[in-house]
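Notebook B, p. 112. Complex prediction, attempt 2.
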Amino acid sequence: MTILAIDTSNNPLGVALLEEDRVLGEYITNLKKNHSIRIMPAIETLMKECERVPADLTKIVTAKGPGSYTGVRIGVTIAKTLAWTLNIPLVGVSSLEVLAAGTGRYFDGYVSPLFDARRGQIYTGLYQFQNGKLTVVEPDQLVLAVDWAEKLSKTKQRILFVGTDLPLHRSVLQEKLGTQAVFAGMTEQNPRPAELGLLGMDKPGEDIHTFVPNYIRLAEAEAKWLEKQGKIIKG
Amino acid sequence: MKDQLILGIETSCDETAVAIIKNGREITANVVASQIESHKRFGGVVPEIASRHHVEQMTIVLEEALSQGHVTMADIDAIAVTEGPGLVGALLIGVNAAKALAFANQKPLVPVHHIAGHIYANRLVTEFKFPLLALVVSGGHTELVYMKEHGHFEVIGETRDDAAGEAYDKVARTLNMPYPGGPHIDRMAHEGTPTIDLPRAWLEEGSYDFSFSGLKSAVINTVHNAEQRGETIAPEDLAASFQASVVDVLVTKAKRAVEQYGVKQLLVAGGVAANKGLREALQQTFSQQSDVELVIPPLSLCTDNAAMIAAAGSVMFEKGIRAEMTLNANPGLDIEIFN
Ligand SMILES: [Zn+2]
């Protein structure tokens, strides 16, 4: 079993190769650079270093969002095409779940991974490790950071926040949650592609053709159009 | 000699398309998934929605093309893909699918210019005779391209503002026609007579460039002025007058270029080549000129498709043009860099 994991859903770009009980290699950068130019060379380089060829792959795991619409589409398109042409299973994993898995394993409490979604909003969800397995407490969502902190304050649990966009929202979260809030260290904020591969290892394959990113949000034009339809129906 | 098979991928706008072309000229498979029904409700192509649809369609269209052509990836010699121009988010899906496909199957990757594709749609109809001239008319482009040989493009004229197809869509909106407006205007033009005097932008003496924004404004002004005077203009007559102006400029400039460059063929390319008014005027003008062969592809090859990308890719492949795994979508790609 050789798993290729691909994550281009946010600024951190990640590729990993895993076999049975071993991470063969990982490639991560956290740069505001074009994923479309860099992801295939990253895959090519890592596979070459690990002395694996495309025909060796037995499964593709990709981060399916939330994140940058364009970014997530690049990884998902490559993952779908690779899985289809190599005739191997494709697994999609939440980009937030990957973040949570990286640092949450030894944390006794909830984990809230997050990505900035502009205008004070974040993409986040609430996760927890139970008997070594990552479980979803609150599904991935788009929410104002301040509202999220308010909601979490009622859980009375300690909450670990993780993500490269943490600096943007840290003060808001800290203010509402005080000592309830724990923040991952700088070296633990990148989503780890090896965790992505591990999360996808035992998950069943998706229907490759119909698999799409989890954008969370409708396209703006679509949302406006639906709103207009609603008004016409109501009026 | 072994047959050459090129798989082409096109996602520059709102069609997800994959085709397989044998020896540069023969269609083995040609699959197009159009999104037009989805975009109609917005009155035009919405880039984000186009990109989302491409992700939904890509592998489905790939699979259909292989099964239609009764081939496997092992039979394919190279993968050709539209690098640009077009909508960046839409192009990205085709480019990344093509890279993944090339990598997984260890096949050469060939970047193709979308307009080169439109021109090469003609080679699926008849063999090229050089030198030739191509009149490219689409929603995004209005160009006269001179070719002295395969894979060599010289743009001798292009639009300075709106593309012809764009002007059609805007005029159609003024006349309250649904999107896409081009075919409606074409149909209405045949029901009316060109009684309204509309401007023709010839630009400087000897220029092969085009400009349609003045014409578009003149149409809008004519409608507004008539409304203010409480008069009604038959929309069919306005459509006919508008079409007469567009066609007059396109045909006159093409004819002058054909004569000056002494070409053997005039190829018509792009979505607006489906326009009946334009086809008729070109046929009329060039039927007497027996030394110039006029080529107009069938409708299905005029609008965006991947057969044209694979056909152009076949020539580029033989020319030795290759892309690396760093290939990116290039919305402003210049056709002359391939020369
Ligand atoms: Zn086109």
